[in-house]
Write the structure tokens for this entry.
Amino acid sequence: MNYVRTGMLLAAMTALFMGIGFMLGGQTGMLLALLIAGGMNIFSYWNSDRMVLAMHHAQEVDERQAPELYCMVRSMAARAELPMPKVYVINNPQPNAFATGRNPENAAVAATTGLLNSLSKEEVAGVMAHELAHVKNRDTLTMTITATIAGAISMLASFALFFGGNRNNPLGLIGSILMMILAPMAAALVQMAISRTREYAADKMGAQICGNPLWLASALHKIAGDAARVVNEDAEHNPATAHMFIINPLSGQNMDNLFSTHPNTDNRIAALRQMASGAGFTGTRSSGGGHFSVREMPQAQPQRETRRPGGPWGPSGQTGQRSGRDQSSRDEPRKPKGPWG
């Protein structure tokens, strides 16, 4: 089903790209646009993940640089029966995250420093589980290719006025102006067409992976509130990638935000709470936010933290890390419950 959906999405994007080419240059322009779109689809399949990570200045981290986050992702990837993805950190104050990659064997998950510093361990686990669900469902291929082609459509449409007087343009200057306005909106609508079911499905599977739907529900509530107040400059400059994040990163300052690429956050939270109620969860305990250690990221950890809880986030039982059992038992008496014990 995911392959069919991906094919339909690419066909729609390619048709839109060809339509713009026809408006700009008639049949010759349409043929040229078809060739470009075909090349872009092939290029996007192999390179779009690296492009998106570069757009947001994501930095790959390992177990030494971000021990808690890396171990958390590794534990949940094993639980989801997925290969270990690459882990990236984005030095950005807005709490958010996304996944990318053409398949589970070549996947990556990325979290902002704002997410790691403001959410509790349980909430971060819920977010990372959501992103791993995208990887497992192979949504990441759809998201990355869509972001690349939608950005190209917007760029090509912006050139419309320069070719408005072209004799091959059947609608002339007026048609070019309409294309400048409508083409990016049409690209956004194509993105929205798959976003609703994709996010709900990832929420459900993510809750199963992390073990508690309320962790993700709480994270969504916090991220939605902070994302509306904290501007993500990279996302504002690359709005075609907005649909990849767990919560829309756009601040609403531009027209791009008129078409939300995400389902209503309150509805997502309500669905997760209903899922938690059916599974017998009545509450969740928080271990507190801002305890992630991310080395070589200047703004990731402004204060040195000595409290490192056990389980998937702490160093206990992990090779190459200091044992924190004595400190954990004193500072973290309540260990999070879930798939890790």
In short: The beta strands are 58-61, 86-90, 97-100, 108-112. The mean pLDDT is 75.
